[in-house]
Amino acid sequence: MADSIQATTTTEQRELKEKSKTNWFAVTRDSIIAFTLTFLGGFVIGLSRPDPSFYMLALAASNLIFLSIGFVISGCLAKNERFKHLLKVALVVWALGLINILFGVQFKKWIFSIIFILVSMAIGGGISFLFVKSNKTL
């Protein structure tokens, strides 16, 4: 009896450990998807050459929409622990955003962009639950 309880506990621990492992392929894939969407949105805004007073607003709206879409996709593709996965994707997207310094973004603005990315993550992650239900959210 005690052996079967211990075997069950060991099996459950092993399954939990497997589920909590980070799938870096999925994190990389989803980070590339989100970053590419924001890049394309910014590229289109740049090509459209909006009025200079409207440019930053257009760029921010584009980034919010496309980054949220990226997080919806990521949330739908996440197998386990959706918001932990999304947080890892958000941190990688933020790190990839460091390249924006080459395009004139100030370092201080890049540091604070994590807030914007986390808001987009919350919006996109929340919307992803409308498409794919999950028992494990954290």
What can you see in these coordinates?
The protein is mostly helical. The protein has five helices and no strands. It has helices spanning 2-20, 24-48, 52-77, 82-96, 107-131. α4 packs antiparallel against α5 (107-131). The chain is elongated and about 65 Å long. The mean pLDDT is 86.
Note the total helix count. Answer: 5
> Kindly, what is the distance between the CA atoms of the first and last residues, rounded to a whole number of angstroms?
33 Å
What composes the largest sheet? none
Estimated radius of gyration: 19 Å
Q: Which structural class fits the helix and strand makeup?
A: mainly alpha
Number of strands: 0
**Overall 3D shape:** elongated
Helix content: over 70%
List the secondary-structure elements in sequence, H or E: HHHHH
The proportion of strand residues reads under 5%
Low-confidence blocks of residues: none
Mean pLDDT across all amino acids: 86
Concise description?
This protein is an all-alpha fold and about 140 residues long.
List the helices and strands and how they pair.
Layout: H1 2-20, H2 24-48, H3 52-77, H4 82-96, H5 107-131
Helix pairs in contact: 2-3, 2-4, 3-4, 3-5, 4-5
List keywords for this structure.
single chain; about 140 residues; mainly alpha
